[in-house]
Amino acid sequence: MAGGIQPGTVATSYESDASEKRQIRLVEQSLNEAGTDWSSRKSMSIEELIGEGAPYSLKKDGTSQRWESDGGFVFYRDECVGVIENKYQHSRQNACERVTKYLTCFEPHQLFLSFEGPGFTKKDGGGSTGPMIDTLRHAGATVLENVADEEEYKRHLAEWMGRIKPT
Known about the structure:
- This protein has 167 residues and is α/β, with parallel strands linked by helices.
- Helix content is 31%, strand content 23%.
- It has one domain (14-164): Trna Endonuclease, Chain: A, domain 1 (3-Layer(aba) Sandwich).
- The model has no long low-confidence stretch (mean pLDDT 87).
């Protein structure tokens, strides 16, 4: 079998798992602090995301495939208003580029992305992570790069929630 994650292989490192769990905890805290109008769901069906039937996204049992998000799909008064994703990378290669799939269903300002790990450290010399950060920020996404301070993280998240809250 060539390429991709091989059967029986664990694709998540200890650091990536810890980063994701930290983000989930901070998101839950922030949504709870924001009040009962705010909630999140770990996954959404493709049909829900695009608001119509998705015949190419059906599973054998006839139900729609789902996208899962590390931080969850964010709802304000039962309306999906954004998505939160976490990526941890040791290297500067292209795994982070998977977050761009959300641009097919959300406006860039509706994306809150937390990038962590040595692969997201600003340095010259190429790689995929730098251009990903630059282009996502240029498009209007909120992108955090190695924000270790939990209060700073929650401040950025609260600011983002203020921007995506329907009026």
